[in-house]
Design a protein that fits this description.
By secondary structure, this protein is α/β, with parallel strands linked by helices. The protein has a single domain (3-273), classed as 3-Layer(aba) Sandwich (Rossmann fold), CATH 3.40.50.1580. Helices cover 34% and strands 25% of the residues. The chain has helices spanning 3-20, 86-89, 96-105, 161-173, 194-203, 213-222, 246-273; strands at 26-30, 42-48, 66-72, 75-81, 109-118, 127-136, 178-185, 207-209, 225-235. Strands 5-8-7-6-9 form a five-stranded mixed beta barrel, surrounded by four helices. Helix 5 (194-203) links the parallel strand 7 (178-185) and strand 8 (207-209). Helix 4 crosses helix 7 (246-273). It is globular. The termini are far apart.
């Protein structure tokens, strides 16, 4: 890690802790069309990414590019409205500085959300899926170029079993249907072909998307606990008649945002009690 990167991470971590008044207990990354969850944060402090050294500058509609600090479910949180994607700049480690900043600020947990395509016929648009694992089909890794033995990260149970159990309890409490499944990461920005989707299904994937997996790798490298929930915004290519588009993603993500908010708040309340 270069000295300039070290400086960016340390500076961003200091800004987060000062603005929040303490270390966040959970960092939350919001996917496309899911920014409404940030509106539930109590007594929010909003910091544009431009004021946080090393944070990404999103280019995707539906990603506001700001960090919301406050309390959610009684837990101090740092909520990212927008993330970096590999397809934006050709760098799979675009979330590196943000995730390491959370780590340096004292945050132990990363909760990820995304908008994804469904490969399960029983999990249609507007459904939620708790991720249990992922398949990296993007042909890259965010730890390319890192040094030291720490880059050889153990990815077994990368999606933390205790955090997943918390989400399942929250779903049962609020009677929110919550599917479980494996996420396949493709590079994007073009949607997958029907042939690629058939191949992903053979490999065991239940959802497909263009984010999340590199963030999980980076977070496990940093020693953070991780959980992730997908909002299923469409059936994947070849599985439905509706043409795929980013507008479709935003429409169904917005429709599912209330269930996601209830699930996330209840899970954080559970975490707070623990």
């Amino acid at each position: 890690m270069t000295s300039s990167l070290n400086t960016d991470i340390t500076s961003a971590a200091a800004i987060i802790k000062k603005a929040l008044g303490r270390a966040p207990r959970a960092a939350i990354v919001l996917g496309s069309g899911l920014g409404a969850l940030a509106e539930a944060v109590n007594k929010p402090t909003i910091i544009p990414y431009a004021e946080l050294p090393g944070f990404p500058q999103p280019t995707v509609h539906g990603h506001s590019g700001q960090l919301v600090l406050g309390d959610l479910g009684g837990v101090p949180v740092a909520v990212m409205q927008g993330r970096a994607h590999f397809y934006e700049h050709g760098r799979s480690n675009g979330m590196r500085s943000a995730i390491l900043s959370f780590k340096e600020s004292g945050c132990p947990t990363l909760l990820l959300t995304n908008a994804a395509g469904s490969l399960k016929s029983g999990a249609g648009p507007g459904s939620l899926m708790l991720l249990t694992d992922h398949i990296n089909l993007a042909g890259t890794n965010p730890l390319f170029g890192e040094s030291g033995s720490e880059r050889f990260v153990d990815m077994a149970n990368a999606y933390d079993p205790s955090l997943r159990a918390g989400f399942l309890r929250a779903a049962e409490k609020h009677n929110i249907p919550l599917h479980e499944g494996i996420y396949a990461w493709f590079s994007g920005p073009s949607f997958e072909t029907p042939a690629e989707i058939r191949a992903a299904r053979v490999l065991g994937a239940d959802a497909v998307g263009m984010s999340t997996a590199p963030e999980v790798i980076l977070a496990r490298w940093a020693g953070l606990q991780v959980a992730a929930v997908s909002v299923l915004t469409n059936y994947a290519a070849g599985m439905g008649a509706e043409p795929l588009s980013h507008q479709q993603t935003l429409t169904y993500a917005t429709a599912a945002a209330q269930n996601l908010k209830n699930l996330m708040v209840s899970m954080l309340e559970d975490l707070n009690r623990g």
